């Protein structure tokens, strides 16, 4: 492995990737036009593929009692997908700083539903991440059409980064077969997509290996997952765009779904069952030799690094007689309850709460992911009443946002809160260093006086009338009266996104 490849892999792991593989562009020779690395970046030489492991319990316990009841599976959208996009972006910037043009591909959430020009593929992403993962030596394609890794089965999200850097490729996976055609994906598919309207059996060659799986009708497959139609409706024998639109108009949308093909799949070497816990297979994993105190210290470290203001850990016995909070309803073998809180410091900014919730989503996943990787069952994004959990643990404050993580490890009870420091003078260089540490490339400052001059010059152009409130953000748009006026003028403003203080 050359030095640059080693640096790329180490940096990807540092950013949070569980899986990292490298594929040469030659392994994509069978990709359709507009979906191959060289169609997207003509100078491409390598594709980096990164993956993040799903929390096992979020897959095993999500989608109950109906696939529409996604519950903890939602961590995929609230944390995993944004985190994967962050990793891809950071890797792209890392390589561009070394002189290599690099193109991060977003996580696949939106497809071209119909073929476009010379692209004859429906439901086509920019690049098929699942095939890229195979080309990068990370695993195989199963009968479900999902990517399977030997470590996690189908339980990972995948992203790809195309680069003109010539990196050392990983060998194609050559271990034990990862799909034994158990057909659980077929039995549990709520739209019967693996038996109805199957066009043929796909035969796809990647790196000298051939993978076979049903070529399903993606309109049928997307009935609930993409178009949010109810799975309780009678699904016609033939599903196409016209049927989807007609059903949507007649019945409306119910909601998305947790994919049953993912839920009920697990590679043979790691598959086992406990029907009292869940109908889905468990993933066999080993508990690492980490003490309870070490776990608590790591959780505190994650909380501190991510600007969490409050952390409490309680025991399931704390909720034994609670009328409204039952941890075992959400995680059957729950032992400890983790409460995380962030103070809502700026109620006047409508975007501030969204930023807090995004941060909480990230942190609960980071903590859950750490616990999962060292061998525990852990769940987030439940329907548990977060405020009631905080009250029961004695840490509730009215101006905080809370979230809850449940784990089947017995941990020491703690209540930790960031100490308030005396207000000190803020130095520009401190803010600049802080912002760059968090990923900003450019950090600039301007005074209220300069802002007022800018505002007056804009008003002179007649783009805005004097009566309109004035608000600007870095996306280049000027917003009108529906943005609340800043009640007290800021003394300074910091970008990249404007921060008033």
Number of strands: 20
The level of helicity is 25-40%
Which segments are poorly predicted (pLDDT under 50) over 5 or more consecutive residues?
A: 473-496
| Cross-sheet strand order for the largest sheet | 13-14-12-11-15
Span of the ends, CA to CA: 49 Å
Structural domain count: 3
Overall outline = globular
Strand-residue proportion = 15-25%
Radius of gyration: 25 Å
Folded structure, characterized:
Keywords: Iron, Iron-sulfur, Metal-binding. GO terms for molecular function: iron-sulfur cluster binding; metal ion binding. Residues 169-199 form the 4Fe-4S ferredoxin-type domain. The protein is α+β, with helices and mostly antiparallel strands and 501 residues long. The chain has three domains: 3-273, no CATH class; 292-417, NADH Oxidase, CATH 3.40.109.10; 446-487, no CATH class. The chain is built from 15 helices and 20 strands. It is globular and about 70 Å long. Mean pLDDT is 89; it is low at 473-496.
């Amino acid at each position: 492995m050359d030095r640059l490849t080693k640096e790329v892999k180490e940096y990807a792991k540092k950013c949070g990737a569980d899986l990292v593989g490298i594929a040469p562009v030659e392994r994509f020779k069978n990709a359709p036009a507009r979906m191959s690395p060289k169609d997207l970046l003509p100078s491409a030489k390598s594709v980096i593929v990164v993956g993040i492991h799903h929390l096992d319990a979020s897959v095993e316990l999500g989608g109950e009692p109906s696939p529409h009841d996604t519950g903890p599976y939602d961590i995929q959208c609230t944390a995993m997908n944004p985190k994967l996009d962050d990793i891809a972006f950071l890797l792209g910037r890392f390589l561009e700083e070394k002189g290599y043009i690099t193109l991060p591909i977003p996580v696949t959430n939106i497809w071209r539903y119909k073929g476009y020009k010379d692209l004859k593929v429906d439901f086509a992403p920019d690049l098929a991440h699942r095939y890229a993962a195979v080309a990068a030596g990370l695993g195989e394609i199963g009968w479900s059409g999902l990517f399977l890794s030997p470590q996690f089965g189908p339980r990972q999200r995948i992203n790809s980064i195309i680069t003109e850097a010539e990196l050392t490729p990983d060998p194609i996976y050559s271990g034990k077969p990862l799909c034994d055609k158990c057909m659980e994906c077929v039995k549990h598919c709520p739209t019967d997509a693996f038996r109805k309207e199957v066009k043929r059996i796909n035969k796809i060659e990647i790196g000298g290996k051939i993978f076979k799986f049903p070529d399903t009708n993606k309109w049928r497959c997307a009935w609930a997952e993409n178009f949010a139609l109810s799975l309780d409706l009678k699904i016609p024998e033939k599903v196409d765009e016209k049927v989807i639109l007609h059903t949507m108009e007649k019945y409306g949308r119910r909601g998305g779904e947790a994919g049953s093909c993912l839920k009920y799949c697990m590679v043979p070497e790691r598959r086992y069952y406990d029907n009292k816990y869940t109908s889905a297979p468990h993933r066999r994993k080993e508990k690492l030799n980490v003490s309870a105190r070490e776990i608590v210290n790591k959780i505190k470290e994650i909380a501190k690094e991510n600007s969490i203001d409050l952390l409490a850990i309680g025991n399931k016995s704390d909720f034994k007689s609670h009328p409204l909070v039952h941890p075992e309803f959400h995680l059957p073998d729950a032992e400890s309850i983790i409460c995380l809180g962030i103070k809502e410091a700026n109620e006047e900014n409508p975007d501030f709460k969204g930023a807090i919730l995004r941060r909480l989503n990230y942190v609960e996943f980071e903590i859950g992911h750490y616990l999962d990787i060292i061998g525990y069952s852990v769940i987030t994004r439940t329907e548990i009443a977060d405020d009631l959990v905080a009250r029961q643990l004695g840490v509730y404050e009215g101006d905080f946002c809370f979230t809850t993580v449940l784990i089947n490890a017995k941990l020491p009870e703690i209540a930790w809160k960031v100490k308030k420091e005396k207000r000190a003078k803020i130095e520009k260089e401190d803010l600049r260093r802080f912002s760059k540490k968090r990923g900003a490339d450019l950090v600039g400052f301007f005074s209220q006086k300069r802002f007022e001059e800018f505002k007056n010059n804009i008003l002179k152009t007649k783009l805005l009338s004097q009566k309109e409130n004035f608000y600007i953000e870095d996306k280049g748009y000027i917003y009108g009266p529906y943005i609340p006026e800043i009640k007290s003028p800021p003394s300074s403003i910091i970008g990249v996104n404007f921060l008033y203080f």
